[in-house]
C-alpha cells in the first residue's frame, strides 16, 4: 500500500452483530481491532431508536433473540457483565388463526401442551416428545451449528449420541418440508401452524424442502429459552458488544463506509473508505457485509477466480420486507386474550393460507393475505414505552423487484393495520403514530439489507453449509488470503447468534497463528480445486 492513514491488526467492515462478535474475539486474542461502520451508529440490524415520539423505543429491525440466548458464541462473551439483561413476555409466541383461535407456546411446557391439545388431544404429548428429543441433543446440535465447517467433532458426537436409527431420522427431518413434517407429527392445526409459521422466519414456505428443521428449531428454542428481548431495546445488545470491545482496546468508527478492499498478489492488505482514507490491516480484513457486496463491490471481480464470480452471480437473496412500527396508546386489544401475553404473534393464516402466501412470493406477486409477524415490545419489556402504552411492529415479506413508492407503502401499511384490526377491534384507534419501512427504506438504513432481505441470502438447502454463500468450503475463508467473510451470508446464516462472526475470527486467528502458512496453503489448494476451470 502506497499511502496509509491508519493501521490495525484487523479491520472489520461493518458493526453488525457478526462484525462486533468477530472484533471482540480478535480483541480477546490481543489484536488491535478497528471496526468501520457506514451508518451513524453501530449495531447493523440490531438497533433501537425513538422513531415516532420521545419515550417510545422501537427496534428498527430485529427484535426477538432466541438464537442469541441459546448461542454458545454469545454466551461466551458474558455480555451480562456489560449491561445486557434479557426480558420475557408472559408467553413466547401465539399463532392466531383466521377464526381467532390461538396456538400458544409458553415457557411452561404444560401450558404449551394444553394449548396444542385444544387442536388435537394427542398434540400436547407429541410436542413434549419433540421437546424431549430436542433436549437430548440440544448442546451437541448447537455446538455443531456454531463450529466452523466442517464440524467434524461435534457432528460425530451428535450422531454418536443419537445412534444410527435416530440419526437417520433426524437427517430425514432436516430435508423435509414443514407441512409434511407437521402432518406426520401432529393431528391438529395448532402445532402444524407453529412449525410452518416459524419456518417462514426464513424465506422457506411450508412446502419447501428444508423448512421443517427451521420451524422445529425455532419452536424448540421458544420452548427452551423463549423469545427474549434485551431490556431497553435491541440496541442494548449491540451496546454491550461495543462496550466489551472498547474495554479491550477495540474501536468502532461510525459514518465510515468502506468502498474497497485493497489487495495485492491475492492477499488483502487493508481497506479504503469513502473519504479516501486508507487503513492498513496487518493481519486480516473481516467483512460483515453480504457476499455479493464484499466480492463484487468491495473486492472487484478482476481479483477473483472467474468460476467463483459466476457462482456469485447465481447467489439467491431472500425475500424483500415491509415493516411498520407503531407507538400505541395502549396494548393491542386482541379479541382472543391468549394473544395478549405473547411477545411475538403470527397472524392470521391457516395452513393453506401460509402455502398461498409462500406461493405468491415465489410467483413474484405481492401476497393478498400476507403472514404478519407482530412484536408486542412493551408486553415483553415494559421499559420500551410509557406506562400503559405499547410499542409494537409488524413485518411481512414481499417479492423482490417491486417498486415501493411512498403511496404504495402507505397503502400496504393500511392493509397490515386492517389485518391486525380484524383480530383486535379498536387497534387502529390506539395508533398514536406509525413508521413504515419498505425495501428501500430498510436498505437505506442498513446497506446490508439489500432490498430488505433479512437473512443476507436464501436459507434454501442449495445455499446452506458448503453451498453458502456459493459452492465452496462453507468457511469464512475467501479466495483472497487474509480476507474473511464474517456476515450472515456465511454459514450458519441469518439471525443474531454471532456464528459467522465467530467463524471468521477463528479463521483469521488460525491464518495468523504459527501454522498460518500451512493453513493458507491448504485453503488455497482447496479453493483451487473448487474454482479451477
Ligand atoms: C426487519 C428485520 C427483522 C429481523 N428480525 C430478527 C429477529 O427478530 N431475530 C433475529 O435473530 N434476527 C432477526 N433479523 C435478522 C438479523 O437482524 C440479521 O441476520 C443480523 O443482523 C445479521 O447480522 P450481520 O452482522 O451479519 O449484518 P447486519 O446486522 O446487517 O450488519 C451489517 C453492518 O454492516 C454495515 N455495512 C454495510 N456495508 C458497509 C460498508 N461498505 N462499509 C461499512 N459498513 C458497512 C451496515 O451498515 C451494518 O451496520 C431481522 C432482520 C430484519 C431486517
UniProtKB/TrEMBL annotation:
One Pfam family in the UniProt entry: NAD_binding_8
Required cofactor names: FAD
Return the InterPro entries for the record: FAD/NAD-bd_sf, Flavin_amine_oxidase
Write the protein's name.
NAD(P)/FAD-dependent oxidoreductase
Q: Which species is this record about?
A: Prauserella endophytica
Amino acid at each position: 500500500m502506497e499511502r496509509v492513514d491508519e493501521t490495525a491488526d484487523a479491520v472489520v467492515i461493518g458493526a453488525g452483530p457478526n462484525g462486533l462478535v468477530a472484533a471482540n474475539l480478535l480483541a480477546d486474542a490481543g489484536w488491535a481491532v478497528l471496526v468501520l461502520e457506514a451508518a451513524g451508529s453501530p449495531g447493523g440490524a440490531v438497533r433501537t431508536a425513538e422513531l415516532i415520539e420521545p419515550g417510545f423505543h422501537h427496534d428498527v429491525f430485529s427484535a426477538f433473540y432466541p438464537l442469541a440466548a441459546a448461542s454458545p458464541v454469545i454466551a461466551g462473551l458474558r455480555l451480562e457483565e456489560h449491561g445486557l439483561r434479557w426480558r420475557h413476555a408472559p408467553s413466547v409466541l401465539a399463532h392466531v388463526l383466521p377464526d381467532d383461535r390461538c396456538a400458544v407456546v409458553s415457557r411452561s411446557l404444560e401450558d404449551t401442551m394444553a394449548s396444542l391439545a385444544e387442536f388435537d388431544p394427542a398434540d400436547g404429548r407429541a410436542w413434549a416428545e419433540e421437546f424431549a428429543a430436542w433436549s437430548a441433543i440440544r448442546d451437541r446440535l448447537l455446538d455443531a451449528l456454531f463450529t466452523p465447517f466442517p464440524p467434524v467433532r461435534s457432528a460425530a458426537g451428535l450422531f454418536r449420541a443419537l445412534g444410527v436409527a435416530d440419526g437417520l431420522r433426524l437427517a430425514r427431518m432436516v430435508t423435509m418440508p414443514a407441512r409434511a413434517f407437521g402432518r406426520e407429527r401432529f393431528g391438529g392445526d395448532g402445532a402444524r401452524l407453529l412449525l410452518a409459521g416459524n419456518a417462514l422466519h426464513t424465506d422457506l414456505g411450508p412446502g419447501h424442502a428444508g423448512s421443517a428443521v427451521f420451524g422445529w428449531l425455532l419452536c424448540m428454542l421458544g420452548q427452551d429459552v423463549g423469545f427474549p428481548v434485551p431490556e431497553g431495546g435491541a440496541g442494548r445488545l449491540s451496546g454491550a458488544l461495543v462496550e466489551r470491545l472498547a474495554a479491550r482496546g477495540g474501536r468502532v468508527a461510525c459514518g465510515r463506509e468502506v468502498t474497497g478492499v485493497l489487495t495485492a498478489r491475492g492477499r488483502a492488505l487493508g481497506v479504503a473508505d469513502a473519504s479516501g482514507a486508507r487503513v492498513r490491516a496487518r493481519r486480516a480484513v473481516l467483512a460483515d457485509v453480504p457476499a455479493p457486496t464484499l466480492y463484487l463491490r468491495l473486492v472487484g471481480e478482476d481479483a477473483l477466480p472467474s468460476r467463483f464470480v459466476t457462482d456469485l452471480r447465481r447467489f439467491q437473496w431472500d425475500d424483500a420486507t415491509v415493516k411498520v412500527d407503531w407507538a400505541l396508546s395502549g396494548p393491542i386489544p386482541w379479541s382472543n386474550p391468549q394473544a395478549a401475553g405473547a411477545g411475538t404473534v403470527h397472524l392470521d393464516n391457516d395452513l393453506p393460507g401460509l402455502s398461498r402466501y409462500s406461493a405468491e412470493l415465489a410467483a413474484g406477486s405481492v401476497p393478498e393475505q400476507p403472514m404478519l409477524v407482530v412484536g408486542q415490545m412493551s408486553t415483553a419489556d415494559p421499559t420500551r414505552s410509557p406506562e400503559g402504552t405499547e410499542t409494537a411492529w409488524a413485518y411481512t415479506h414481499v417479492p423482490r423487484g417491486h417498486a415501493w413508492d411512498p403511496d404504495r407503502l402507505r397503502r400496504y401499511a393500511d392493509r397490515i393495520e386492517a389485518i391486525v384490526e380484524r383480530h383486535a377491534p379498536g387497534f387502529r384507534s390506539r395508533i398514536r403514530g406509525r413508521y413504515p419501512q419498505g425495501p428501500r427504506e430498510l436498505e437505506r438504513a442498513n446497506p446490508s439489507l439489500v432490498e430488505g432481505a433479512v437473512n443476507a441470502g436464501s436459507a434454501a438447502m442449495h445455499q446452506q453449509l458448503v453451498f453458502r454463500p456459493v459452492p465452496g468450503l462453507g468457511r469464512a475463508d475467501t479466495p483472497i488470503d487474509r480476507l474473511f467473510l464474517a456476515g450472515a451470508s456465511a454459514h450458519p446464516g441469518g439471525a443474531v447468534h454471532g456464528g459467522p462472526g465467530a467463524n471468521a475470527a477463528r479463521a483469521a486467528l488460525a491464518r495468523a497463528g504459527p501454522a498460518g502458512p500451512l493453513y493458507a496453503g491448504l485453503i488455497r489448494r482447496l479453493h483451487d480445486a473448487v474454482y479451477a476451470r
